[in-house]
Amino acid sequence: MAQTPMTVVGAQKLREELEYLKSVLRPRIIADIAEAREHGDLKENAEYHAAREEQGFCEGRIQEIEGKLSNAQIIDVTKLPNTGKVIFGTTVDLYKVDEDKEITYRIVGDDESDIKANLISVNSPIARGLIGKEVDDVAVVKTPGGEVEYEILKVQYL
Q1: For residues 6 and 112, is the Cβ–Cβ distance under 8 A?
Q2: How many Å apart are CA 111 and CA 100, to the nearest integer?
Q3: What confidence tier does 1 reach under pLDDT thresholds 50, 70, 90?
Q4: Which of 20, 103, 107, 123 qualifies as a FRET site for 116, CA 20 to 30 Å off?
Q5: Residue limits of the Transcription elongation factor GreA/GreB N-terminal domain (predicted)?
Q6: What residues does each domain of the chain span?
C-alpha cells in the first residue's frame, strides 16, 4: 500500500484517539458486555446487542487508525528548508481576487482536512493549484463553479 502524507499534528491526533479507544472505550465496552451477560437470555437482551455493536465499531476504528498510522509518511514541515514554495504542510495566506478577500489555508493529508478549520487536503483542487507556487504568484484553480484566482501573499513553514 502506498504511503499517505500526514502532518505531525494529524498523526498526533490519530495517536491520541487510538489511545482513548484502547485505554478508555474498549474496557468500558467490555464491562458493559459483562454486565449485560449477567442479565440472562442474550437473544432478547438489547443492552448486550448494543454493547456488541459498539464493540464492533470501536474495534473497526482501532484497525482503521492503526492502518492509517502504519501507512503514514509523517512530514514535519518545520524541519524542511523554507524555500518559499507552497508544499505539503505549509500554511498559505491568499488573496481571493474575485471576492476581494484574504483567506489562510494549511495543506494537510486527506484524513486531516477540515474546510471549516481552513485545513485543505493536498488532493483538493485548491491545494493542487497552489503546490509549487511562491509569494506573489497567481494560482488559477478550476472549481465546479468556474476558475478562481488566488494571489499568494505569504507561505509559512509552521
Answers
A1: yes
A2: 30
A3: low
A4: 20
A5: 5-74
A6: 4-75, 77-156
Supply φ then ψ for residue 76, to 5 degrees.
-100, 100
End-to-end CA distance of the chain: 29
Give the SS3 label for residue 81: coil
What radius of gyration do the chain's Cα atoms show? Answer: 22
3-state SS of 12-64? HHHHHHHHHHHHHHHHHHHHHHHHHHCCCCCCCCHHHHHHHHHHHHHHHHHHH
pTM of the model: 0.81
Q: Residue 134's closest CA among 89, 82, 81, 80?
A: 82
Domain 4-75 has CATH 3.40.50.1820: no
3-state SS assignment for residue 102: strand
Phi, psi values for residue 114, rounded to 5°:
-155, 100
For the chain, what percent of residues have pLDDT higher than 90? 74
Predicted confidence (pLDDT) per residue in 123-132, tens digit:
999 999 999 9
| Residue 54 and residue 46 in contact, taking contact as beta carbons nearer than 8 Å | no
